[in-house]
Fold peroxidase.
Amino acid sequence: MSVSSQTSEGKWYHVETGRRDGKVSLASNVSLPDATISVFDSTKFFASKNLTPNDMVYLLGGHTVGVARCSLFKDRIYNFNKTGGPDPTMSPWLLVELKDKCPRISLIFDNTYPLDVKTPSLIDNSYFQEIKKGNGVLQIDQQIALNELTKNIVHDIVNDPYFYTKFGEAMVKLGRVEVLIDGQGEVRKSCRVVNKKPFIFGGQQVFCTTFSCPPCP
Ligand code: HEM
């Protein structure tokens, strides 16, 4: 069975339903690569999940929306590879922007900056256009536009009117990674949270999640 998921530009792709998810959701259980991972290591990481370099580049198109914290790319602005200077692959425009939004020393706030520097709230291929111009915010974003393993894929996406379809296909493949089977996990009512569990508290039936108050029995 499948349902449709809508991108912010009104394009649709079908996602498979009935996937079982874990009953516990903890950031500490998630294995995600660092923003400084090399393209080669990243292709190996995606391959370990049965995803090709092509899937990887389309999926990184997920960075067409959302933001990253300055602390995760500050080295690229002020001390790239311990050189005391910026990452030479960063465009002069982006360098000025990021220096403004991410001061070298900020003791309290960890500001954020959009991963797609031009249209951060639209799912479009502007992320790919921008990384080709040196406007990749994370190191991995910039590197996929430059590395021999992936730069042709990025080039093709920039000129691809079917970007949305292929992005959707890669998302469906991602949804098939390490699926729980049989009695493991649960099908979530809302994909963002583990299901609430009923229990009796103070004589009344209440519903809880693992971290709700009152805590689960
Ligand atoms: C090599 C693979 C990847 C790396 C190294 C990576 C790294 C990152 C990092 C460092 C951030 C910023 C997080 C923060 O500031 O707390 C981020 C944000 C984000 N990533 Fe990725 N990512 C990868 C793949 C993906 C994929 C495959 C998707 C989705 C298909 C994705 C979607 C997002 C989104 C939507 C955000 C913004 C989150 C927000 O605004 O709160 N990323 N990523």
Notes: The chain is about 30% helix and 15% strand. Residues 33, 35, 37, 42, 59-60, 62-63, 65-69, 72, 138, 140 surround protoporphyrin IX containing FE (CB under 6 Å).
